[in-house]
Amino acid sequence: MAEKKPQSRGRGRKPAETLEGRESQLVSLAVDLAERQLSEGTASAQVISHYLKLGSTRERLEQERLERENALLMARIEQIESGKRIEELYATALEAMRSYSGQEVFEIEDD
User: Fold this and answer.
1) What rounded mean pLDDT belongs to the chain?
2) Which residues contact 4 (CB under 8 A, 6 or more apart)?
């Protein structure tokens, strides 16, 4: 009796274990297929227009705008976190000054 060969999954890759990894693999396969269709001249109008849009000046500007917006949001997050650290440092410094001056330091309990 002939021995059965295990079925291979796309270029011998095993499926990723995470959802993000699997999605990345599938996107890679789809891009490979689109590339092959474009080079063979069998790509659909949707595939052709998709890649034409990706290469447009407008798309590049949109991607640049999104990158800058992300950088701005990250800077805002860092600024907020920095402000919180500064507030904590001021509170610690005030407590230290009160204790050095001989004033009694009262702690407020949050319930």
Assistant:
1) 85
2) none
95 and 74 co-located in one domain: yes
Answer yes or no: is 34 within a domain: yes
Looking at the structure, tell me whether residues 44 and 71 fall in a common domain: no
Cβ(25)–Cβ(16) below 8 Å: yes
Tokens 């796309």: give the residue. 10
Tens digits of residue pLDDT in 44-79: 999 999 999 989 999 999 999 999 999 999 999 999
* Count of domains observed in the chain: 2
Q: What contacts 51, CB < 8 A, 6 or more positions away?
A: 34, 38
In 10 A of CB 51, how many CB atoms? 15
Q: Which residues contact 43 (CB under 8 A, 6 or more apart)?
A: 34, 37
Residues 85 and 73: their CA atoms lie apart, in Å, by 19
Q: Is the pTM of this model over 0.85?
A: no
- Does residue 13 have a pLDDT over 90? no
Q: Whats the size of the chain, residue-wise? A: 111
Supply the range of the domain harboring residue 39: 24-54
